[in-house]
Amino acid sequence: MAEGFTLVVATVGGGLSRTVDGGETWDRIRDPIPSESNIRALSVYPDDPHRILAGTDQGIFRSEDNAGTWEKLNSPMEDRQIWSVTVDPTDPDTIFAGTRPDAFRSRDGGKTWDELSLGVTIPCPVGIPRTTNVIVDPRDNRTIWAGIEVDGVYKSLDGGDTWVHLPELGPDPFHGDIHGMAISPGPTTSIYCTSPFGIATSTDEGESWDYHYFPKFNEKDNRSYCRGVLIKADDPDVMFVGNGDAIPGITGTIQHTKNAGKTWESIDLPVAPNSVVYWFGTNKAVPNVIAAASLYGYVYTSTDGGENWTKLKKEFGEIRSVAVMPN
User: CA–CA separation, 100 vs 35, rounded Å?
Assistant: First the structure.
């Protein structure tokens, strides 16, 4: 196992753990983040790969030293589940936290927060909708994208002050059960979303969507379930989608494309996942290091850009997010 990177694993019920040696040894964070807390969101700062935020059920926390020590930020989110956290890549003092429901924004590095009303549909098929993704558009940081579980995609053109609900992604409400989101800017910018049905792509700023459906694992399955999506930090044609037979499921895989989604293949992992592959982590400072996790505790790492994978020895309970940082 190659060294040189820190891996952070966030769980529901098991708090936060990190390894700085490729998984040989682990530190369990116990203070100030409670060791048995629920953590569903991790976000490494784009301008500082050693700085990271964690969104928990007790508020939002920050580390300046590769997740070694943490401080709690003052915020109005201590009574909200935090489902996503993101930092503006052009203004690191601007932070967004996707909550259940809606979202919050700080423009002063987390000292003060504004509650944002996206206008989500309440109730939705899962009760109170969750803002599972917030993305600051790399082309223009006034444009903010939000993916909702379950209410499709919302977009702001004024930094989060006002929002519009974009067209439905498909005929079934769960086509708009947004799990993962990514943006690939270019001559034709692509917006990607994953849902229980597959991966949807928009090349017209979210006005219309094309779905790609992965093969079912079993003939009796309702669909081939998808969760996270990751674009390789140094090659936008290389993407990964976390996949499985159901949620939580009993098996899964990583779907991999090298041509921006024209063709996909399932990665042959060294140990079959025990549930849907849920989420990914990488970092532009170590772009060939990619981490993936099953929902039920298996952690996989690749140090060659996703060609070869290792399953780490340590297993966890329910994993909700992973993050990678250079040592």
Answer: 22
User: Strand 27-28 relative to strand 210-212: parallel, antiparallel, unpaired?
Assistant: unpaired
The Cβ of residue 137 has, within 10 Å, a number of other Cβ atoms equal to: 20
Q: What is the count of structural domains for the chain?
A: 1
pTM of the predicted structure, to 2 decimals: 0.96
Pairing type for strands 180-184 and 190-194 reads antiparallel
Taking the C-alpha atoms of residue 320 and residue 224, their distance in angstroms, rounded to an integer, is 20
Task: Specify which residues 80 forms β-bridges with.
Answer: none
> Cα separation of 152 and 150, whole Å?
6
**Quick check: helix, strand or coil at residue 173?**
helix
Cα distance between residue 150 and residue 131, in whole Å: 9
What span, in angstroms and rounded, lies between the C-alpha atoms of 206 and 222? 26
Domain containing residue 213: 5-326
- Helix then strand count (H, E) for the chain reads 0, 28
pLDDT at 2 over 80: no
Token pair in block for residue 138: 């790399």
Residue appearing with tokens 């369990």? 28
Phi, psi of 7 (to 5 degrees): -120, 130
Do the Cβ atoms of 41 and 90 come closer than 8 Å? no
Residue 48: CATH number of its domain = 2.130.10.10
Tokens standing for 275? Answer: 């549930």
Q: What is the pLDDT of residues 279-316, one digit of tens each?
A: 999 999 999 999 999 999 999 999 999 999 999 999 99
Spatial distance between the Cα atoms of 130 and 180, rounded to a whole number of angstroms = 12
